[in-house]
Amino acid sequence: MQLSTKHLLGIRDLLPQDIQTILDTATQFKEVLQRPIKKVPSLRDVTIVNLFYENSTRTRISFELAEKRLSADTINFSSSGSSVSKGETLLDTVNNILSMKVDMVVMRHSASGAPHFLAKHIPAAIVNAGDGINEHPTQALLDAFSIREKLGTLEGSKIAIIGDIMHSRVALSNIYLLKKMGAEVMVAGPPTLIPKHMAEAFDVKVEYNLKKALEWCDVANVLRIQLERQNQVLFSSLREYNLAYGVKKSMLDNLNKEILIMHPGPINRGVELDSDVADSHHSLILQQVENGVAVRMAVLYLLAGRGES
User: Do 146 and 284 lie in a common domain?
Assistant: First the structure.
């Protein structure tokens, strides 16, 4: 099994069969993770550098764990304690790391397009672990894996992405992936947090009423309010946001069906999700974290295989 691309820069660049291959491979790796010995020698001779220019906890730990489970050699780099703080450029940093014979770079950067820039200039395989407000492909893949695991298929399923659509790379990657795999997609939230022309540009439904969105969907993927990316006031207060768009247990209890709740994390409890929703039987949040390791193992494994062919 091979991917049609040497890099994972975004879902936009993947074919539906690439997505299928990654999800099927992740299923096999999830079985490995249930064993008493969770390690396989698949990437024993592969060296991977984790290049994080932006703070991250879950994504970084998930990639590190995936690499260790595959027996890869890993180097962890964060910009705060490095020569970047002395003015070293991105290309110089990576070329210095590549001179140590690195095969793959997992990269998170605050600038949209940074992984694409690297892919043009260096021979190593690049995995985008989040670039600015552009894409977060492995998050979309693990979300899709989690949905498929619960619903059996992505095709025909109704997914509502709720919250700060405008500033979310997770939303963009999810929309690309779900549309490619035949799902119906709705974005929901305040008008100030949903870009204009969203419906036409991405062929998605747009809904400003949370109750209607929850009544429509099979799965609600609730996004974090990204205050750090907002350079203007887009709603009156977090309390007001919670009153209008926070998902509450009473709302789920009043639906005439069971829906699944997802969240890419970290959760702002009491803002976009109330605690009794995040911790309820509706929630797939902890399964998403668990599935993230299997999906990232699949991505690394397939890209390394592609490099050998």
Answer: yes
Residue 94 included in any domain:
yes
Q: Is 266 helix (H, G, I), strand (E, B) or coil?
A: coil
Task: Please tell me the distance from the alpha carbon of residue 294 to that of residue 297, in angstroms, as a whole number.
Answer: 5
List per-residue pLDDT tens for the chain, 309 residues long: 789 999 999 999 999 999 999 999 999 999 999 999 999 999 999 999 999 998 888 999 999 999 999 999 999 987 665 555 556 788 888 788 788 889 999 999 999 999 999 999 889 999 999 999 999 999 999 999 999 999 999 999 999 999 999 989 999 999 999 999 999 999 999 999 999 999 999 999 999 999 999 999 999 999 988 765 445 556 768 888 999 999 999 999 999 999 999 999 899 999 999 999 999 999 999 999 999 999 999 999 999 984 343
The residue range of the domain holding 41 is 11-135+292-308
169 and 260 belong to one structural domain? yes
CATH number at residue 229: 3.40.50.1370
Could you tell me whether strands 73-78 and 205-207 are parallel, antiparallel, or unpaired per DSSP bridges? unpaired
pTM for the full model?
0.93
Name the 3-class secondary structure at 119: helix
Structural domain count of the chain: 2
In angstroms, the CA 96 to CA 113 distance is: 21
